Amino acid sequence: MADAAFARITGREAADGQPVTVNLTMPATVLLGDQPGTAHLDVGGTMPAEIARNLVGRATTAGVAWVKRLYLAPESGAVVGMDSRARCFPDGLAEMIRARDRYCRTPYCDAPIAHTDHVVPYAKGGATEFENGQGLCAACNYAKEAAGWHSQVVPDATGRHTVDTRTPSGHHHRSTAPEQAA
């Protein structure tokens, strides 16, 4: 009965196993090449690069690997960003978007932000990243999910985050993030 419940809830057979995330950090030059080095296993310490490459290779062959890129500041080597496959914006990223946008980004709305939303919807290939995020009130977020709405990030001369939204009537509205105090 437990296996049947698992299959109905998850859509997978119990024999398929449960997906597991293993956070393994190593430089791309070590992962992709034959350079010596080590990898760091989160909550597990360091391991030789050969073992780490073997783990990644097996997972890739099985079609279950995903390599997440971490972006480092050139001067300090500090982590400043990363890839994400998450549909929902992680708390820290959502907080950055709310700080940038301050209020609903729909022109003339100015309501408090209730949802951190994808400019290009996740279902249409939109990435869960800072540039593709915007803060919206609940009403505006639900309205833009209706047929005929289209949004995209566009370049702005000020360098601030700007979204062009086309309504079902064909009207275009631009929304630029407010200027940040220095």
Give a quick summary of the entry.
This protein has 182 residues and is an alpha+beta fold.
Polypeptide structure, described:
With 182 residues, the protein is α+β, with helices and mostly antiparallel strands. It folds into two domains: 81 residues, no CATH class; 86 residues, no CATH class. Helices cover 25% and strands 22% of the residues. The strands form four sheets. A three-stranded antiparallel sheet has the order 1-2-3. It is globular.
Helix/strand/pairing category: alpha+beta
Number of strands: 10
Largest sheet: 3 strands, antiparallel
Strand order of the largest sheet: 1-2-3
Residue share in helices? 10-25%
| Gap from first CA to last CA | 61 Å
Low-confidence stretches: none
SSE blueprint and pairings:
Layout: H1 2-10, E1 24-25, H2 28-32, E2 38-41, E3 45-48, H3 49-61, E4 70-72, E5 79-82, H4 91-101, E6 115-118, E7 133-136, H5 138-144, E8 150-154, E9 162-166, E10 172-176
What would the keywords be for this entry?
182 residues, alpha+beta, 5 helices, globular
